[in-house]
Amino acid sequence: MTEPRRAGAPAPESPDAPDTPVLLDADVVVIGAGPTGLMLAGELRLGGADVIVLESRETPTTESRASTLHARTMELLDDRGLLTPLGTPPSEPRGHFGGIPLDLTLPGRHPGQWKVEQTRTEALLQEWATGLGADVRRGHTLRSLTVTETYAEAGATGPGGRDVRVRARYAVGCDGERSTVRALAGAEFPGQEARRELLRADVAGIDVPDRRFQRLPGGLAVAACRNGVTRVMVHEFGRPAVARTGEPEFAEVVDVWKRVTGEDISGGTPLWVNSFHDANRQLTRYRDGRVLWAGDAAHQQMPIGGQALNLGLQDAVNLGWKLAAVVRGTAPDGLLDTYHDERHAVGRQVLGNIRAQALLLLGGPEAEPVRSLLGPLIALDDVRAHLAGKVSGLDIRYGAGAADVHPLTGTRLPRTALVDDGREAVDPSLRAGQGLFLTLDPSGTGPGTGAAAAAAWAGRVGTAVARPVPGGVLDGLDAVLVRPDGYLAWTSADGAGPEAALHRWFGAPTHL
Length: 512
Hints:
By secondary structure, the chain is an alpha+beta fold.
């Protein structure tokens, strides 16, 4: 494990000098230690960047707001060796699109969706990131952000009111939909205001029927009991979103639940009460010079089907290796612009499908004709596969439409198209956050087109040989270049050799 650099770390804090500012240096300061911020911190450390994470909460969350990991996110966690600690979480092939049942099964290593409590996801990612050397500082509330041509400095109030300042080359806001980084930077965040909301609560000691998006005359009701605790969610048709400064009272959930279902849950014990709405916004730019955003700080959406969590984790994996390469000097600053180009487009598409789902899910009687039309269409396999690809993230293709490239270029590496010959399912290069030049040779021994060129990027791009499945999607290709996030940067069927792709994504060669 590489120890983190502390170029400007202060001497140990003196309790006799509480007014003395704590001055810290880092390559990157990340604001927010939720799943996105912790995933990003781990990715940055894999790439050799020094990172400090500032989090206002003094302890990790005890709330499991998001509990669904989709197929693409599971693949990324697999790439980094993070699935083993999770064991075998419950999986479910059936999801939904706007409350209409949808089979999410598509070809891949982890089809369907997987149920992992957010508390468990955060604990896993924090252990991983800190184990790699990330410095996670809780109880630090961001109050200022100063950006110059050469650095970004985050000013925070630490434990005991201590003034803490972190000067870094880049700052990344991963601090949620009410992002302080976004507010301090004055970033444009256009979109749709909240119009409808869902109330939800985890309640012990109640006995109500399990419901999966049950549409009743007065509204929508969901209930699921697990280990003696029932999560209820309810929306009353026609009831507008409430302007809130905090979480709703349990009494409000009780009242709305009774009006919609006719059931009284007032005798239960609320363990957690929350609301979420259908506001739909996206930053104009995910990057503003030395400041970047990821996760809910970059896009605000209704968390339908767990897409918000997965979108944020995938933002982090896309950004992490690029930002690490830039701060290490192995790639030009312009590589960071590809983060905006790629993830803003993906975010726009996801926000679009979530907006459509919100109308189907929370719309009253006026939505029934559309729901009646869509139900039979989803049963058609092409339609099902199309929507499942959108929800799961398996349909992403970066740079779609580029000339002279193979249709697989820009898509994820389909490992189901490789023959398992006893080696690790995931190449060690990807586990270490490096790129991979993969020779596709039916014999499993050939050098492959471009392998010699890739050797000049040793240390940033690993090499391996694999056998493609006869007749599979990789059949007929001699080699592919895989980015650290698992997407194909080049195939041997593209219009040129791998050198241009190697330069674009990995900078100048290590040696010629």
